[in-house]
Amino acid sequence: MISSAPSPFPPETVQAVTAHMNDDHPAETLVICRALGGCPEATSARMTGVDGEGGDYVVTVNGAETPLRIPWARPLTERAQIRQEVVRMYREACGRLDIPPSGETGH
């Protein structure tokens, strides 16, 4: 589900964030979707959007793509907050799945 509220982030920010996550952090994105998105059986995931309320993803489950929305812990208004929130989510997801963080989410 995509938020109907106006996004505080311009399209170029959304594109940069989603490209970075999909190109540089696909494993971390999958961990987040498995643990926080309620899709433990997902075999792949990609970020498709962000706004002030959450992130949008598409996960592959049993060969079929399914849209998924994961809300932030709090509303975000600045680009730097997105990175902080994604790192927080990844660490929380690792804890829920009882796996060690990869240490690659520092940028």
Count of helix runs: 3
Main beta sheet strand tally, sense and closure: 3 strands, antiparallel
Helix content: 40-55%
In CATH terms, what is the fold-level topology? Split barrel-like
**Roughly how many Å is the radius of gyration?**
13 Å
Total separate domains: 1
Structure, described:
- With 107 residues, the chain is α+β, with helices and mostly antiparallel strands.
- The protein has helices at residues 11-24, 26-36, 79-97, and strands at 44-50, 54-61, 64-71.
- Strands 1-2-3 form a 3-stranded antiparallel β-sheet.
- A hairpin with a 2-residue loop joins strand 2 and strand 3.
- Helix 2 crosses helix 3 (79-97).
